[in-house]
Design a protein that fits this description.
The chain is α/β, with parallel strands linked by helices. It has 11 helices and 14 strands. It has an 8-stranded parallel beta barrel with strand order 3-4-5-8-9-10-11-14, surrounded by 5 helices. The radius of gyration is 19 Å and the shape is globular. The two termini are 36 Å apart.
């Protein structure tokens, strides 16, 4: 899997990035051995870009990622983490973070939104400690939708200063909504945006964002290509999830149609879903999360194997035909 430049920066990413939320026990726990085996399998398959955040498992994702990469040559991999949520001692733990944060970990810590300069520096310091690193390559401002003015006025300038000093390699913003990213691209000197779930085989609403990024020389990292589960199986089941909740019937129908078209061309829906974002030249890489070594290895194979032009034509036609049906 060849290294690819992140836009105009010197940072390199693999076409497939490892989204480390699942190894932070997203929705349900996975054991330490399974988490490390999954990370090792991704490395063996050629993955060299790893994305994490303090939010993921209240730091568990960062710790596990740090453990897995501790014996790897630092010049051979790229890591991104995020700022905007500070981890602090929980004054009244309930025993689990599942309800509050969605991760199956003890809630001994609590997240506090902080998009100030000091909050950025404190968050990054904690991430480096958990990752056991002296620097990270990319830092994203995480989900600033409700704090966009503060993020633009304080968090991003702080990160841009660190980039200009050579402390980090690239600055970005990551969220699952398009409008805030459009404003960021227009107003800030960012290197990349991470858009989750909005540039997928099923949901292509990030098209205006990709166009804006192309005009400004900003790289796009397309995350959540399976729309949090709906596109991860050849034929989506009735209990499939879409954007972290139960998939609405309209989304199920559209996903199943795309699965049927994929099958007619001798491939599977998750293969098409993983390859779709990479068709646009502005997309530097696609980031997906994995819970097992088998998932990581399958994704790596799909990433380096394109579909035929005939398959893409039929998939695009099917997607366009269903585009006027709301997804929710």
């Amino acid at each position: 899997m060849r290294a690819r430049p992140l836009g105009r920066t010197s940072v390199q990413v693999s076409a497939l990035g490892f989204g480390a939320a699942p190894v932070g026990n997203l929705h349900s726990p996975i054991g330490e051995l399974q988490a490390q085996a999954t990370l090792d399998a991704a490395w063996d398959a050629g993955v060299r870009y790893y994305d994490t955040a303090p939010h993921y498992g209240l730091g568990l994702s960062e710790r596990r990622l740090g453990d897995a990469l501790a014996h790897r040559p630092r010049t051979e991999f790229t890591i991104s983490t995020k700022v905007g949520r500070l981890l602090e001692p929980h004054p009244a733990p309930t025993g689990s973070d599942l309800t509050a944060g969605g991760f199956a970990v003890p809630d001994t810590l609590v997240r506090r939104p902080d998009y100030s300069r000091d909050g950025v520096l404190r968050s990054l310091e904690g991430s480096l400690e958990r990752l056991r690193l002296d620097h990270v390559d990319i830092v994203y401002v995480h989900d600033p939708d409700d704090h966009l003015d503060v993020a633009l006025g304080h968090a991003l300038p702080a990160l841009i200063a660190l980039r200009d000093q050579g402390v980090i390699g690239a600055v970005g913003v990551g969220t699952n909504t398009v409008a805030p990213l459009l404003r960021v691209v227009a107003e800030a000197e960012v290197d990349a945006v991470m858009v989750a779930g909005r540039w997928t085989l099923l949901d292509r609403t990030a098209r205006p964002l990709l166009d804006a990024c192309a005009e400004r020389g900003v790289a796009v990292v397309a995350a959540a290509p399976f729309n949090s589960g709906l596109l991860s199986r050849p034929y989506p089941a009735s209990d499939a999830t879409f954007d972290y909740g139960p998939a609405p019937e309209s989304a199920l129908r559209r996903a199943r149609l795309l699965g049927e078209v994929s099958a007619r061309h001798g491939t599977e829906l998750p293969h098409a879903a993983l390859r779709f974002p990479l068709r646009d030249p502005g997309v530097a890489c696609v980031v997906a999360g994995f819970r097992t070594p088998e998932e990581a290895m399958s994704a790596a194979r799909w990433t380096v194997t394109d579909l035929t032009e005939e398959a893409w034509l039929d998939l695009d036609t099917a997607a366009a035909r269903a585009a006027d049906v709301p997804l929710s």
